[in-house]
Amino acid sequence: MADAAFNSDAVNMSSKKRSGSSDDQWEQFSAAKKHQVMNKTPPPHAEDPAAALANARHEFGEHGGVNMSIEASATFTVMEPETMRRMFTGELGPDRDFFIYSRHFNPTVLNLGRLMAALEGTEAAYCTASGMAAISSVLLQLCSSGGHVVASRTLYGGTHALLTHFLPRACNITTTFVDIRDHEMVRREIVEGRTKVLYFESVSNPTLTVANVPELCRIAHEKGVTVVVDNTFAPMVLSPARLGADVVVHSISKYISGGADIIAGAVCGPASLVNSMMDLHQGALMLLGPTMNPKVAFELSERLPHLALRMKEHCRRALVYATRMKKLGLKVVYPGLEDHPDHALLESMANKDYGYGGILCVDMETEEKANRLMNHLQNSTQFGLMAVSLGYYETLMSCSGSSTSSEMNAEEKELAGISPGLVRMSIGYNGSLEQKWSQFEKALSRMQDSSLPKKI
């Protein structure tokens, strides 16, 4: 297949070239594209993800609409029989506007990939049907049978299960789990020549441990190991690729979608990796087929422009609530608080003005207390909803140990620092800040009242 890892700054070509012949229009396009790249002046504040998104090319609709058209076709026609053979040999491909089949490449999905690459500051990106599809495909592309992964102990439960159970059984790929804050431990567990990937979350789910991305990348790269970072908890806040990571994965279902109505994922990284994952013979994405629907890609492309605004409000409210909860005497975990062990580290790596993340945790110590708190918050005062996931405009709450981390056994949860009563809150922005805070206080008061012994 011809390379499909388009540079996000490529000029827009709206004409559809369905013939395989070379013509003046294509030569003019190639010359213009080359001139643009050769003479490009770096935009100001290029490190800001919102600025990078704004500088990505804008796809227009087929008839000049300000929104791009949705290419909903599963298969694509050609004008000349010889063209199809040239497409399957890789001579003609998406980089020249030739498409075969939407499991391979789809114009709408490729456009979302360009935007994700701009967001994360990578050469290329490919979008998938789910976050787990992105994670599993990357690991299978980078690791062969007998391969080894070093990963953080504290990961999303599905990722932990993939590394602990599925990959060893199905693929003979093993994982050593480490305390990601213990850099000597990380260094010690990397086996040169065997370890292929160092995998961690930029901000861990659910304990909100912040990874020292530059230092971990330095350790891994010294030993020839590829660094894969899940940045689902911190889009806009952190840019792992700009800090040295090789690959960034996302569950787009969360903050990037923002509507709790879409399941999607993304792999952002070097063009060479993304193209290898789409290889007809060896590509994990191509052959496993976790294809994103173009209608989903269109929806997400329309939401990315206001991601920065949404993230800033999620983060602003999370900091206010975390500060106030702590003053009430609750055991709060939030990296925006100065007493969080990773506060200074996050400040040193974070993109300016995006805050410290939209997730906070309240440790109620026991599952029973956690459930009582959430019950009051949802059913008594409407502060939030008891539901997994994050990034929604309503606050979402779950007791992590018995929900999103339930794939881990008791010992693994203890090593990861997941308390039985840890309530993870994805802070929303619906309603006014003071309105929602009043609802929180009322729920807490009712919970405390119900715990008092009743008079006889």
UniProtKB/TrEMBL annotation:
Location of the region described as Disordered in the Swiss-Prot/TrEMBL record: 1-48
Cofactor(s) needed: pyridoxal 5'-phosphate
Alphabetized Gene3D superfamilies for the sequence: Aspartate Aminotransferase, domain 1 (3.90.1150.10), Type I PLP-dependent aspartate aminotransferase-like (Major domain) (3.40.640.10)
A GO MF label: carbon-sulfur lyase activity
PTM sites of type N6-(pyridoxal phosphate)lysine: 254
Record-linked InterPro entries: Cys/Met-Metab_PyrdxlP-dep_enz (IPR000277), PyrdxlP-dep_Trfase (IPR015424), PyrdxlP-dep_Trfase_major (IPR015421), PyrdxlP-dep_Trfase_small (IPR015422)
Keywords: Pyridoxal phosphate
GO CC, alphabetical: cytoplasm
Similarity comment: family membership: Belongs to the trans-sulfuration enzymes family.
Descriptive protein name: Methionine gamma-lyase
